[in-house]
Specification:
Elements (H helix, E strand, L loop, with lengths): L3 H21 L4 H11 L3 H9 L9 H15 L2 E9 L3 E9 L2 H8 L10 H14 L1 E11 L4 E10 L1
Antiparallel strand pairs: 1-2, 2-4, 3-4
């Protein structure tokens, strides 16, 4: 049976191939992000997330975002999730030491400000749509290599 590191490497490689393939097919990263956000809310996919311990609660932007941050750290998908700023129109969040960080690093290349297709942010966006009635798009992402973290700014609008 594969060990944790092998499963992690495979997951990063598989996810990178999906994103690269979709991008080569002409789909933009914002479109891919929105589709992933909706996909994470599909009932059959929700069961996988719940089985992995990803249950996000709340009814407004603040409570959903805080539940997301707490949950991602608890299940160990991200070692650091800090909500830096939050309002009904914007979420700024620091995601560091993420299990899919190697994939986003590969996708980003040397461009420290390129917005990677982050599945964790897609999970947050899907939860915000379902629970708070807000849809987001990642406006910017700043990678801080010395801290192995990405600082995402997501703009929100009502559905």
């Amino acid at each position: 049976m594969a060990n944790y590191k092998q499963l992690l490497d495979f997951s990063n490689g598989m996810t990178a191939v999906f994103f690269e393939t979709f991008n080569k097919m002409g789909l933009s990263i914002p479109l891919i992000f929105n589709e992933f956000s909706e996909g994470f809310n599909a009932n059959d996919v929700k069961e996988f997330l719940q089985s992995a311990g990803i249950i996000i609660e709340g009814t407004d932007v603040k409570s959903v975002t805080e539940s997301f941050a707490k949950t991602m750290k608890e299940v160990g998908l991200c070692q650091r999730v800090k909500v830096l700023e939050i309002s009904d129109d914007e979420v700024k969040i620091d995601i560091g030491e993420c299990v899919l960080g190697p994939m986003t690093k590969l996708f980003r290349g040397t461009d420290l400000n390129k917005i990677p297709p982050c599945p964790m942010m897609a999970i947050l966006n899907g939860a915000l749509a379902e629970k708070a009635g807000k849809r987001g798009h990642v406006e910017s992402c700043k990678w801080v290599p010395e801290e192995n973290t990405s600082i995402f700014t997501m703009k929100l609008e009502a559905l």
